[in-house]
Design brief:
The structure is a single chain. This protein is mostly helical. It has a domain of 113 residues. Strands 5-6-7 form a three-stranded antiparallel β-sheet. Strands 1-2 form a two-stranded antiparallel sheet. Strands 3-4 form a two-stranded antiparallel ribbon. Helix 7 crosses helix 8 and helix 12 packs parallel to helix 14. The mean pLDDT is 96. One of its GO terms (biological process) is carbohydrate metabolic process. InterPro entries: 6-hairpin_glycosidase_sf. This is Delta-aminolevulinic acid dehydratase.
Length: 396
């Protein structure tokens, strides 16, 4: 198992390094130079339809329509975390994926690149995606509009890197991001607590995992600064999200009627955030919510043969996020050893069914076909981080 996993990871690592961590994204259709040269770029309906054409099509239209590969800050944050895990392996004598010096160089490169890609003009360091994005309901996010999701993963990567590099500018940027969460994101007050918005725009404030990721970031910054305002704001958001948890331990994606689905990887995001909130603040008030959520997660999203389901009641489409988040959640929440048999089945199924011979992972597997487009953020960065966690867990 170790040999085959190591080989699969090495192929992925080589692919990502050869691409310089640049790639396409399921949602990057508006980066098309051809689309941007037309008057349709001013129509919210046309923008949404164009994005969906690229996202849903198993044929990659990006070269034809002049969509360039790019660096995505969230992907860079995930790669940073992955290399930091590899650094730990190298420190323990496993240099299969590079020496400490070689890995440190990668970490420095990615950290510097992430610092360069900050979005200016806000109360603290923040990051967004490298493409325009049109949401349903008319919301439009120009490229690099900062979001709580991209910012959280970028900051986690920078803080992981700083534990190795001891670079003051990394810590300063990461710590300042707490002010972006507090000052620039909107809040929706609930009976108890509030929800953070996804971005500094009105009308995107109903998604539980986004609010919880804001809590996770604030909690981690609190652990460094002991600023009680960060811990209290984090707690209020966790409180609102835990109050929204269903009796069986599940969460809907969000509050709106059109957000009433229950899926695998967003459940994993919620669990990671609640667990990290407890670890960084010492507040165990939501342990029961975490336990209920984890039981639901482990019982509803994986088949006996290791197939990772997308929804609680539907297997397809099988999305690469699902196995990646599962491995990450098991490792980060200290449940890997307890569920190692299932973890091994899931990672083996994923490698056998969703990894290309060139090393990259596919986007989605449906009943009728597989979307094999090599997305860098959605697929490669997530699997890079997840497999690095797995390798840490099975290290002797």
């Amino acid at each position: 198992m170790k040999t085959s996993l190591g080989n699969a990871f090495q192929k992925l690592k080589t692919y990502c390094e050869n691409e310089n961590y640049q790639g396409w994204d399921p949602y990057d259709g508006l980066n098309s130079k051809i689309f941007q040269s037309t008057p349709f770029k001013h129509s919210s309906f046309a923008r949404l339809a164009w994005i969906q054409l690229f996202k849903r099509n198993p044929v990659n239209l990006r070269k034809l329509f002049l969509v360039s590969k790019g660096h995505n800050p969230k992907a860079l944050g995930l790669f940073l975390t992955g290399y930091c895990n590899l650094y730990e392996l190298a420190q323990e004598g496993n240099e299969q994926f590079g020496s400490t010096e070689e890995i440190r160089e990668k970490i420095q490169y990615l950290a510097d690149l992430l610092i360069e890609l900050q979005t200016p003009g806000y109360s603290g360091a923040c990051w967004g995606y490298n493409f325009d994005w049109q949401a349903r309901g008319g919301l439009f996010f120009p490229a690099f509009t900062p979001t709580v999701v991209a910012t959280t993963y970028a900051v986690n990567g920078l803080l992981d890197a700083n534990q190795i590099l001891q670079d003051k500018k990394l810590e300063e940027a990461a710590v300042s991001s707490a002010e972006f969460i507090l000052q620039d994101l909107n809040r929706t007050q609930k009976k108890e607590g509030f929800l953070f918005s996804y971005a500094p725009k009105f009308g995107n404030n109903t998604v539980y995992n986004a609010s919880l990721l804001g809590s996770r970031l604030l909690a981690r910054i609190y652990s460094l600064t002991k600023n009680k305002e960060y811990a209290e704001a984090a707690r209020q958001s966790v409180l609102a999200c835990c109050n929204a948890q269903n009796e069986d331990g599940s969460w809907y994606y969000g509050e709106l009627d059109i957000q009433d689905w229950i899926d695998s990887f967003h459940t994993g995001f919620n669990l990671d955030a609640i667990y990290d909130y407890k670890q960084y603040t010492g507040d165990e008030s939501f342990q029961e919510n975490y336990e209920k959520g984890f039981r639901y997660y482990i019982q509803h999203f994986f088949l006996d043969d290791g197939t990772p389901k997308y929804y609680h009641d539907t297997t397809y489409p099988i999305d690469i996020h699902c196995p990646a988040q599962f491995i990450t959640t098991l490792s980060k929440t200290n449940r890997f050893q307890q569920h190692e048999t299932l973890a091994e089945k899931v990672i083996n199924w994923t490698i056998q069914n969703m990894q290309n011979a060139k090393g990259y992972f596919y986007y989605q597997k449906k009943k009728s076909h597989t979307n094999k487009i090599p997305y860098m953020r959605w697929s490669q960065a997530w699997m890079f981080a997840a497999m690095s966690y797995y390798l840490k867990e099975i290290q002797d």
